[in-house]
Design brief:
Layout: E1 29-30, E2 43-48, H1 53-58, H2 65-76, E3 85-90, H3 103-123, E4 130-135, H4 137-144, H5 154-159, E5 163-164, E6 172-176, H6 179-184, H7 189-204
Parallel strand pairs: 2-3, 2-4, 4-6
Antiparallel strand pairs: 1-3, 5-6
Length: 224
Amino acid sequence: MQLTLLPATPSCTACDLHSAAKNVGIPTRHLHTSLPPDPTNPVVIVIGMNPGTQEDRAGECWIGPSGQLLAGPYLTGATITSLATVYLANTARCVSPGGKPKPAHYRTCFANTLLDIGNILDHHHAAPARAILCAGADPVTYLSRTFQKKALSQQDAFRVQGMSIPTLTRTHLFATYLPAAVLREPGLIHPVADHLALLRNFLTGDLARPTAPTIRTPFLPVTT
């Protein structure tokens, strides 16, 4: 089965971000340092915010400082790249000069990312573990809106790490801080390490799960 990812869309004019972008519609890509895209490999799809200026110049997502932090200390440091096939995506696919994308930009573009997610999961139909890692608050918001009315906040997502996504069969949600946030506040790398340890445990089948307690009938003393 051939994996199909959406190509770059240089002719896209669906929102105003295209007007300032050198490369419009920067596509999802396979992280070449992770396992190859074999359908039987565990799969992790990382969703970030949107491309930055270096990505816009090169037409490739996750290659700037945030991408280097993601591929290195985040994914390689937590051994995710040796355990799974990793794909890198964004909630919006164009650079947004002067600030982050607006909600309208995300709503317009996230449909493309969802198509990629569907194609990746279809390709990895035989994978023993399938996960989506939301890197940042905005990816959590727009992904969670696809399966429930009220969006999850980032803190909500931290509390339900590993939850099953109702609309994506056998696929589980994980969340962590955006690499750009760690570049601004290096101390955030410590909770990131905890988040990625949970993802690693999920991929190896070691993620802790609560179990139902065993209810025993209380002993009642015999009275006379």
